[in-house]
Write a structure and sequence with these properties.
Length: 600
């Protein structure tokens, strides 16, 4: 092979290394080859939960207001399995499970999908198979969700807009409410004692369940070893049972569950708790379990709007924006500055501005709150660290706290995404590229116009910032002619300034690499090199190598050279190889020879 290649070198031909000093790797001729180359808290069981950039809107638990925040759902690792198109289709979503390894989401078309580990059949797909590819739940397609919660098994409860209650997953304690302890492999409609009732909200503890109806009634069922069903006994409850006693004739407007405790808020702001109380999570001033609902007398005189239950602690938000906390505090989740449990509610964040939202879920020891100005605080167990005082974050949503710092990184509520009425700055810029209605400048390339905005170009590119100075002729023009680059290349360059992305085949990326070099756009240069590397083939390898040398792309040159050497026989049979000039061929042969490419 070497002999046949040498015959193509320019005349006079000298045997490599004969009368001329042989170029070596890193010392090649001036044609460019010139480089060297425990849980300590007492409770029953564990885990579960209650509760591109997307606008998230979540109804307040009392349905009095809506909280709005920007949330990037790809912060939850499981959603990185989805494509950009799939992410854009999501209207509602929830991440759950002992390790945050299960997900359910609903699209704008009303289709329901699940993916993940599928512990205890909690995906509801009819089998026990895990999946990293979303699977559709046909039985729920077209149903609008208003509430979703899950337990530790996990088991899942879901409420539709019509007030129907569906359940599936772990059922060892009858937490599905269907009267059996058989696993729920697919969604089942829960109807016992709920006929003619419109369910509006659900909450799951570890292995028990609560449902709130439109009339303000609370129903409970499932595991009841600590009285968390509120029936007056510790016998498990196989079907939904109305929680009465002191809730009788009360209109309840919100519910929440700890691991083995239950909480409810009345329409007058009173708070009631029942079930396990070993850490004081019921806020009654003692640590005795309660088999029926008891009112939190310590909050008398306050009107509570929102209640949130963690693993073994509780938070309450009043109508004056005051925050109270009580219960377990091993990880500082009460935010009191210490790790001492509190048997009664204590006010926290007293020096902060008005609180408008609180967040906790029964599978974690993490707490979060959002202030009126949009500041988000977190405390408790944060990535394994105990944070004993509320810590100001850079987040804009309490959901981000749970995505990035909770263990497991579950969602504390069902997220609702709205894509239609909001565009980020980046999305707005992308939308306006090549828009003749808003542009104030046109580039003419190969007889075609590209519509742009001077201000954007000046902000994004030093070349244009210099061009649009008063002493440059181009500053006064409405149309600028470009003749040194092709239309696809120049359009891609301008689009890059609006989007930070490039979509070109490798061959065109060579021209864009030339432009990036000319305009000193180093990031664009790296993107082009990346595109070329991904698109290299035997047919175009030598052309790409030549371009890398020509545009001084050192890393790309090394990559292309190694590819050519590794596929030397095939590369030397391509048209691109036989079209290169002799000097470059000579330098390639010298360098390849030193790499041992021609050894038999």
């Amino acid at each position: 092979m070497l002999a046949s290649l040498l015959r193509r070198l320019p005349q006079p031909i000298h045997e490599v290394g004969a009368t001329h000093k042989q170029p070596v790797i890193g010392q090649l001729s001036s044609h460019s080859w010139s480089r060297s180359n425990s849980d300590q808290e007492t409770s029953e069981l564990s885990l579960g939960t209650h509760s591109r950039y997307l606008l998230v809107s979540k109804p307040h638990p009392l349905r009095l207001q809506r909280s709005v925040a920007m949330v990037d759902v790809s912060k939850w690792p499981l959603f990185t399995l989805l494509s950009a198109q799939e992410l854009a289709s999501i209207r509602q979503a929830c991440i759950f499970g002992a390790s945050a390894n299960e997900a359910i989401y609903i699209t704008h078309d009303g289709e329901v999908y699940v993916l993940g580990l599928n512990c205890s059949n909690c995906l509801g797909t009819g089998d026990s198979q895990s999946t990293i590819v979303p699977k559709k739940l046909d039985s729920l397609t077209g149903k609008k969700l208003v509430s979703l919660s899950y337990g530790s098994g996990p088991h899942v409860l879901l409420v539709t807009e019509e007030g129907e209650l569906y359940a599936w997953g772990h059922n060892g304690y009858s937490q599905l409410g269907n009267g059996t302890t058989n696993q729920g492999v697919s969604p089942i409609l829960v109807t016992t004692n709920l006929q003619n009732k419109k369910v509006t909200e659900v909450a799951c503890g570890s292995h028990h369940s609560l449902a709130l109806t439109h009339e303000g009634e609370v129903f409970a069922w499932g595991y009841n070893n600590c009285g968390q069903v509120g029936s007056g006994s510790t016998a498990n409850q196989p079907t939904p049972r109305k929680v009465s006693n002191c809730l009788q004739n009360k209109v309840m407007v919100s519910i929440a569950c700890g691991q083995t405790s239950s909480m409810a808020v009345a329409d007058n702001g009173e708070v009631y708790g029942w079930g396990y109380n070993g850490n004081g999570q019921l806020g009654l001033g003692n640590n005795g379990n309660q088999l029926t609902p008891c009112r939190l007398i310590a909050l008398q005189g306050l009107c509570v709007l929102q209640i949130a239950s963690g693993y073994a602690h509780s938070l309450a938000l009043t109508d004056e924006g005051l925050l109270y906390a009580w219960g377990a505090n091993t990880y500082g989740q009460l935010g009191t500055g210490n790790k001492s449990n509190q048997l009664s509610p204590v006010q926290v964040m007293t020096e902060k501005e008005r609180i408008v939202e609180i967040a906790a879920c029964h599978s974690t020891h993490t707490s979060a709150a959002k202030t009126q100005s949009g500041q988000v605080y977190m405390w408790g167990q944060c990535r394994g660290q105990p944070i004993v005082l509320p810590h100001l974050t850079h987040f804009s949503s309490t959901d981000d706290v749970f995505a990035c710092f909770a263990t497991p990184s579950v969602m504390w509520r069902l997220l609702s995404m709205e894509h239609d009425d909001f565009l980020t700055v980046a999305q707005s810029l992308k939308k306006e590229f090549d828009n003749p209605e808003t542009s104030d400048l046109k580039f003419s390339v190969d007889g075609k116009y590209i519509h742009v905005h001077k201000a954007v170009l000046k902000i994004r590119c030093e070349h244009f910032r210099s061009m649009f100075q008063s002493h440059w002729n181009e500053d006064m023009k409405e149309v600028i002619e470009i003749d040194q680059f092709s239309y696809p290349v120049y359009r891609s360059f301008l689009e890059f300034l609006y989007t930070d992305s490039v979509d070109l085949p490798p061959e065109d990326a060579i021209g864009l690499l030339d432009l990036a070099t000319s305009y000193c756009e180093n990031r664009l240069k790296k993107l082009c090199q990346h595109i070329i590397k991904r698109g290299i083939t035997v047919e175009n390898a030598f052309s790409l190598l030549s371009a890398a040398i020509r545009y001084d792309a050192e890393d790309l040159e090394e990559f292309c050279f190694k590819f050519c050497v590794n596929h030397l026989t095939e590369v030397t049979q391509t048209a691109a190889f036989w079209q290169i000039d002799g000097n470059m061929l000579k330098e390639f042969i010298c360098r390849a020879s030193h790499c041992g490419a021609f050894k038999n």
